[in-house]
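Continuing the batch. This is chain 6 of the set; chains 1 through 5 are on the previous pages. Same settings as before, nothing changed between runs. Recording input and output for traceability.
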Amino acid sequence: MLRGLLRRDWSTLEGPPGPATDAPGRAATSYTPTHLDRPPTIGELYHAHRLRMVRLAVLLVDDLATAEDVVQDAFTALYRRHGEHITEVDNALGYLRTAVVNTARSVLRRRRTARAWTPPPAGEAPSAEDFVVLDEAHREVLAALSRLTPRRREVLVLRYWADLSEAEIAATLGISKGAVKSNASRALDALEKILEGRI
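Output for chain 6:
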């Protein structure tokens, strides 16, 4: 039941399919460039997967502006390290996804540090753009996700929104498949209790 709720809510964060995006509700697992004898360029990855990476980041950091910054930083770091032509990376999209998760993790660490010193502004309302991306049901799920530990949240986002396999999640987060399973199970239990108002 909860798994269906997660997939239904998060899949509607997808926009309509276009020539440079994947079909909604499915994770981007590979990119096929025009010339099949070479890996994708940074520009090709950007045009094909930027929106999908932003939507992934939104689920990790809670707001659209920060998510866009996270993805921009990930692409910039990838460009600085490898240049326009990514010839040294076997799975450029997987590499990019890991960069987005790691950058989001750094943002959350900095946010926690800042909040330890400065109280959050009272009554801060979501922007109009945030409401375009997230309706009430999405905000309820995101609010519940924000109460999970960072690791459990990452596992759920990658499993039920990005639709990655346990092996892909393990590779992205640098943990074992067993750790993915245990974190997913505990996260689902905790999320269900939060959404039901039990904790």
